[in-house]
């Protein structure tokens, strides 16, 4: 099993190296880190669309809005890359807590605290993906018409990252003793899913329809 220190820097790995680590019989990176990385790719596509739009005379009227979307997308991309490693760090806390002797009176509280900590990176990934989708929605309206397919791809990736992250929240809340805290986190996740999964699907479908009409 990887130590907590050896899990750091996952987001800096080359794509092939990350995929190889993900495929290995090792606990990190796992689904939570993969979801955060997918979300970062979705945000990166938003940045790409914005970068192709700024400084174009055709889009001068929306330049300020596009630059704002670009700044947002870049912040979100960096947040999500940090969350790749935060997810691995949180897994290390859970693993260490469960490794405590069962007769240790501190074990139950340590496990509870670690489970709550482990639920936070995937929850934050969901929040970041919702914000990335908001930027993609704006770019779908104001970004370069040549990159509508990239808006659609970004929406697909952010939706997938959000749904995958929700599972990684629920796998931790399911084992928490504090059912009130667990239920609160689950409600917040459900609210994000209920609002943003349909919006992401609507956006990707709209962009795909425009691509097919304009191709």
UniProtKB/TrEMBL annotation:
InterPro entries: Cyclodeamin/CycHdrlase, Formintransfe-cycloase-like_sf
Domain Cyclodeaminase/cyclohydrolase, first and last residues per copy: 16-190
Cleaved signal peptide residues: none
Xref: Pfam families: FTCD_C (PF04961)
Protein name: Cyclodeaminase/cyclohydrolase family protein
